[in-house]
Every structure is written in structure tokens, then in C-alpha cells.
Amino acid sequence: MTTASFRFYAELNNFLVPSQRQRLCSHPCSRDASVKHMIEALGVPHTEVELILVDGVSVDFSYRVDDGELISVYPCFNEIDISPLVRLRPRQSGINRFIADAHLGQLARNLRMLGFDVLYRNDYSDAEVARIAADDGRIVLTRDRDLLIRKEIVYGCYLHAINGDEQLSEVLVRFDLARSAQAFSRCLNCNGILQTVAKRDVEHRVPLHSRLVYDRFYECQGCAHVYWEGSHVVRMRQRVAEMLGSAGVADR
After folding, report:
1. Domain positions in the chain
2. Sheet bearing 49-54, strands edge to edge
3. Sheet containing 226-228: which strands, arranged edge to edge?
4. Which tens digit of pLDDT belongs to each residue from 147-161?
């Protein structure tokens, strides 16, 4: 048995018991324990950790803890002046894609309204979320830290906020998404891409009043749901402006 000292920074302290927050704490470690195992044993999901320093040196999750070491654990950040920096997970390639757990339906809908790729079903099991995230390289959005500890999940985001708008702001800020928003480009129901469609091709599926008044229509490539620019669009544009404003970006 060895003993190492741990110090967690910023929001990572929210995962610790009160007596361990904002301070250096010594913990016994089983011989040959990985630093990832110890961090999660203390309650912090690995997806929330961006940097680990052992006696001032950057290490990865596989590092084996030794007696007397000082381990500093940092959350996600935009930049930090440390070299060399050992990355804890591969960089994601391309556009961020998400999967929201079964309790985050409103967050999924809001992100889709802004044009982001978010899978969601209200009957997803934790196992399904983990499998899909691993297979598709998606970021798991959840308030369940036990879900994020699953070893197959590489990318994740624990939502500290309970309020839906605050959760949205967390995601937009953490992944720097606001400037890449493409509002009204995805289906709110199934996450499919919307495409412009001729009125004559869908008017038989539109209520009579809307058929007579409006001319611009869109169809989901996934579920074939038809959308049109009715009076509700003014309210939705205002909603988009509010959502992007919460992340410090005005609607464009």
C-alpha cells in the first residue's frame, strides 16, 4: 500500500466530499494503482479531467501512482502554459457530435434548434449511451457521474447546472460552440438535417391555413417532418438570440 497526496482544482471539487474540497488530501492507494483509477475512486469522472500533474510533470491516465507523490488534477480549459503536455485523450476530429442521456430532453432540443448534432431518446439505457458514444465518437451529456466513469466513454460532459438554460450555456461555453451555430438546420424531433423543399411537393401534408399563407417549406431528411416559416419563427429567433446571448454571442 502506498500513499499519495491529491489536489483537485476548480469545478472538479464539486465531485468530492466536502472535507476534501479545495485542499491537499492524502489517500492510500493500492500497489500499482493507475492515476485514473484513483481519480475516479475519489468521485471525479475521467471525462472531466484535462490535465494531471505528478510532482509537476504532466502524465496520462495509465500512470502508476507511487508513494509520496503530489498529484494535481485540473478540469477542461482553453489553454495552459505547460510543456510538455501529455494529452489524456485523442483530439476529436471534425464537428462536435453529442448524445444526451434520457433525462436531458430539453437540452437536446435546444442544441438541435441551434443546429448541433445531438442523439436523444427518453428510453436510452446507460449501456446504450455508452455503446453509441464509443461507436460514433460522440460526447456524452449527462448529470450522472456514474455513467461518465464507464471505461468505454472517451468524451463526456457532466452538467453541473439543473436549469435547462444554464445547462445549455455550460455546453456552449465548454465546447466553444456558439459561433458555429446554424439555427433551424436540424429537425427538433429526430435530429435529421432540414432541406428546402418545393411547396407543391409537401402542401398536401400542411394545414390549409399555412398552405395558403406561407411559401417557404423545409423537410427533414430523417423523419420527413415538414416545417414552414410561420408566425412562430419570430418567437423562435428571439429564443435563439437568448440562447446564444447566454454564451456571450449575439444572434447573427
Report:
1. 2-75, 98-183
2. 25-29, 2-8, 70-75, 49-54, 57-58
3. 194-197, 217-220, 226-228
4. 999 999 999 999 999
